[in-house]
Write a structure and sequence with these properties.
Largest sheet: 7 strands, mixed
Order of helices and strands: HHHHEEHEHEHEHHEHHEHHHHH
Number of helices: 16
Helix content: 40-55%
Strand content: 5-15%
Distance between the termini: 60 Å
Length: about 400
């Protein structure tokens, strides 16, 4: 097939699929047993032949995201949340493209729910950054690239890391400034297990890479716009606590591919309570007014602006107030929750800790796990207080 893609060849290894290969890739995807298994797993009772028939009618990315992913995500919201809401959309200028940068709570749904907020309002959608460590099978790569995801290469050798960062930076700037599409990227590689969300300097350094301009100009041209994500309950909290425990026992513990798959499945299908996205303002004006010019000064100022916007933007739920008071050993926020809220949260914590699949847990380790779980629910409130008081 002649390459008639509108995406430059230099980016095709990481870019989403273009429309000219769309139907070919869809036709290949639906024949994959792994894809069929995944569809049946997340949609029990689905008529798979009918599902395939409808999927093969999809002509392009727009149709796929609006007519396939949109209804699927609405189903997930209905089945696994107490509602998805957002505010701050007035901070987005019509016709402007952004690099949306968020805290990272869920491997799959952070960016998916962000786009669902846009689908509901018939606004342009974003491309999505996804680490290639999650692309365990070829069909998963096809699926995410059909869904307008671009690939972050995380398994490169140290000597190749700078070139991979330059390549990724160039693609983000191409998408935002040449292709005219917004992108999403998490503020750090991997989720903050304790919910202490801080932007990695290496991420901003990557965005600032460019052979043509200095770091400051390149960071500004990316139009970084922070978004604060709050999940009332994190379905993966017990898996994160398990990881804390295993790493406490063995500092060299590393997760397996199976662990990543379990986290994705649990995040998709687990109960989340209320979910809220709060859009901040693009950091450009504040970054320019800060007077930062040197590379490291610009990077650190950008990280501070992003963190402050995210921390001050968290939606806080009763469980966060309860966890904060228990961790701090006081009753500072006792007026923000009821005795029933406390009883319900205690039952929830106990049930989640029961799910931790580790042998021979001691009483000391049980107490440690409870403390870590409370900490991950308390930290968003701690950071919000620091950002706003």
């Amino acid at each position: 097939m002649t390459n008639c893609s509108s995406i430059p060849e230099e980016f095709q290894d990481i870019a989403p699929y273009d429309d000219y290969v769309y139907q070919q890739k869809i036709a290949s995807l639906v024949r994959e047993p792994g894809f069929e298994h995944a569809v049946r797993f997340v949609m029990p009772g689905v008529d798979y032949p009918e599902f395939v028939e409808n999927l093969l009618k999809v002509k392009n990315q727009f149709d796929f995201q609006y007519n396939v992913m949109g209804p699927f995500l609405e189903m997930l919201v209905s089945a696994t949340t107490s509602g998805l809401s957002c505010d701050g959309l007035e901070n987005l200028e019509p016709g402007q493209c952004y690099t949306f940068i968020t805290n990272h709570r869920d491997i799959v749904l952070d960016a998916s729910f962000l786009n669902l907020c846009f689908i509901r309002r018939k606004m342009p959608l974003t491309q999505v950054a996804i680490g290639n460590n999650l692309l365990i099978y070829d069909w998963i790569t096809d699926l995410v690239k059909l869904n307008r995801s671009f690939i972050v290469k995380r398994d490169v050798r140290l000597v190749d890391a700078l070139e991979a960062a330059r390549h990724l930076s160039a693609y983000i700037h191409y998408a935002v400034n040449t292709r005219g599409e917004s992108v999403w990227i998490a503020q750090r590689e991997g989720r903050a297990k304790d919910s202490n969300d801080l932007t990695q300097e290496s991420l901003i350094k990557m965005v600032g890479l460019s052979p043509e301009s200095d770091t400051r100009a390149n960071v500004l041209s990316a139009n970084l716009l922070p978004v604060a994500i709050a999940y009332e309950y994190d379905p993966n909290d017990y898996l994160k606590v398990r990881e804390f425990l295993l790493r406490r026992r063995d500092p060299n513990f590393k997760k397996s591919q199976h662990d990543d798959l379990l986290s994705m499945e649990t995040g998709l299908l687990g109960r989340k309570g209320r979910v809220h996205f709060r859009f901040g303002r693009c950091i450009n004006r504040d970054l320019e007014q800060s007077g930062a010019t040197g590379r490291l000064e610009v990077v650190r100022q950008a990280c501070q602006l992003i963190d402050n916007t995210i921390h001050s933007g968290y939606e806080i739920f009763p469980c966060n107030y309860i966890a904060y008071d228990e961790v701090e050993g006081g009753k500072r926020f006792a007026d923000r929750y009821t005795a029933e809220d406390v009883e319900q949260f205690d039952r929830y914590i106990a049930a989640q800790l029961e799910r931790v699949n580790v042998e021979n847990i001691t009483d000391d380790e049980q107490a440690y796990m409870r403390t870590m779980m409370l900490t991950m629910y308390a930290n968003p409130l701690k950071n919000k207080l620091l950002a706003t008081e």
